[in-house]
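[Meeting: bench + compute handoff]

Bench side (C.D.) handed over the final construct sequence. Compute side (W.E.) agreed to return the predicted structure before the next meeting so the bench team could plan truncations. Sequence as handed over:
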Amino acid sequence: MALVTLKELLQDARKRKYAVGGYNVFNFETLGAVIEVAEELKTPLVIGIPERLFKFVDVDTLSAAMVRAALKSPMPIALHLDHGYTYEGMMKAIRWGFTSIMFDGSSLCFEENLKRTKDITRIAHSLGISVEGELGYVGCYGATKDINEENLVKPETALDFVEKTKIDALAIAVGTNHGAYHGSPKLNFSRLAELNNKVSVPLVLHGGSKLSKDDYQNSIRSGIAKINIATDTSLVAGETLKNELAQNQTANYVHLMSIVKKGVKNSIRKYMLSFDCISKAM
């Protein structure tokens, strides 16, 4: 199946009440793991790479592999730049052939976030590429104590942002945080439902790693159409590697790669089974 845009995937997810997983990958093993599980379970898929990863991996080679793998797969797949911050980073993703970019202006004042997101959307849409924007405070690395009512997105603000920027999806702050959790996140499902009723575009939940199945189900019922998984993929890969080395200290690298891929596949499968997306690609 040809590459599809984020807009196409998420409109269907919103209509049919499921969530597409947005999985960030960082090497060939994680890329293969995500696609193989999607094909096994027949799920639509968003595969992403965040701009912050550019300095750690050969992104030109990895992005080419992402495009090739997506084109070979029978599943509908959107390739996504996650958390793009710079014009240069977003232009790279466009040149690679990605079908979606996210501009993360959530740390900016509302006016500047709106202005930059609107400019990026105008360029992307002229090329047939979807855009995800972000509003509100999604904390980082266990900072759940920083998340309060004032950080959550207000429905009127979201409506204004969506109408003026013309984005295709909106990531919203409703109580999650990026990175590993210390303590339990408290999602505000009533605010999420208000946002879903107010805006016309699908909503995205960032900080999706390690939530409960009930959290995922309630999020989907309240309007979430895409759930991002990034941190847990990296953590699972690391834990799988450490566990295998503890049991088999003479293991060669090829064996370790296959073991890590298997561990990541098991993790991804659990998420997909919680998102109500199984067989939605049929």
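W.E. noted at the follow-up: Strands lie at 20-24, 45-50, 77-84, 100-103, 130-135, 139-140, 169-172, 177-178, 203-205, 224-229. C.D. will use this when planning the next construct.
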